[in-house]
Design goal:
By secondary structure, the chain is mainly α. It has one domain: Tetratricopeptide repeat domain (Serine Threonine Protein Phosphatase 5, Tetratricopeptide repeat). About 65% of the residues lie in helices and about 0% in strands. The protein has 13 helices and no strands. Helix 8 runs antiparallel to helix 9. The N and C termini lie far apart (about 40 Å). About 55% of the residues are buried.
Length: about 270
């Protein structure tokens, strides 16, 4: 259901720059106008035309949007609206897509899991639009319908961090890890939440586990660099941030890594 790394490649992480005090909300549109779409969107209706429209979204979003409008004229209903909203999202109009997806999920007569998935898509679209408060609300509606969906809990943890609610983010990350301890993304979210709660030693353990699972996870490396810098290990922090830039040079993570290094070099007096 979730977008294949719509947000900061791995998590749309909200990361602390060089141990400073400000958190940044990072929308996934920083380096591209066209956004990725869910690999297997939920099916709200059983129309073959709707199915074809959804299949077009990733490769030809303009064509999918045109087809969705035609299907609406032919009475396909919420299926055409869903396809149109996903096409809008893929084309980069995240806010309009999020509003449309919320309306569809609210009014749909489809099953609980399909509606929850569409609320989840709305939440992810709000994240892409830089509206974490709307994202959190939509994702909470999705989780009310399917409480044990690890993807939805992960996305809500991201929104909670953006809203500076690390306690809530930590609770959701721990629920995810109780279901699947092999999710590196959840370990990184847990580390970030623990750090914001001034639990630096547990945060270091959490990010270490993320890197044991995925040694080249750029969000985990970025987070570990922050923790190392906070502990006075500037050499280790620089090593992690340089590795982020090497692994994902065109990513938001790389931008943050570069900014963190610049702040570290500037020293406390110039921050």
């Amino acid at each position: 259901m979730t977008f294949p790394r719509l947000l900061l490649a791995g998590t749309a992480m909200l990361l602390l720059a060089a141990g400073g005090g400000a958190w940044w909300w990072l929308a996934g549109t920083a380096h591209e106008d066209i956004l990725p779409t869910p690999p297997d969107p939920p099916r709200l209706v059983g129309s073959p035309d709707y199915e074809r429209c959804l299949q077009m979204v990733a490769e030809d979003p303009e064509g999918a949007r045109a087809m969705a409008y035609r299907l609406a004229m032919e009475g396909v209903g919420e299926g055409s609206a869903h396809c149109a909203a996903l096409a809008l999202l893929t084309l980069g109009d995240a806010a309009r897509a999020a509003e449309a997806l919320e309306r569809i999920a609210t009014r749909s007569q489809a099953g609980i899991r399909a509606r929850a998935a569409v609320f989840g898509q709305a939440g992810e679209a709000w994240i892409a639009a830089g509206r974490p408060e709307r994202a959190h609300a939509a994702l909470s509606l999705a989780i009310a319908l399917t409480p044990d969906d690890a993807d939805l809990l992960t996305e809500r943890a991201i929104a909670s961090l953006a809203l500076d609610r690390p306690g809530e983010a930590l609770a959701d990350a721990e629920r995810v890890l109780a279901m699947d301890a092999a999710r590196a993304e959840a370990w990184v979210l847990r580390a970030s939440a623990e750090r914001l709660l001034d639990r630096v030693a547990p945060a270091a353990e959490s990010v270490g586990q993320a890197l044991r699972l995925e040694p080249e996870n750029v969000e985990a490396l970025l987070e570990r660099g922050i923790l190392r810098q906070m502990r006075g290990d500037g050499t280790g922090a620089r090593s992690d941030w340089e590795r982020v830039i090497e692994l994902a040079p065109d990513s938001v993570a790389a931008d943050l890594a570069a900014q963190n290094m610049a702040l570290m070099e500037a020293g406390p007096a110039r921050r």
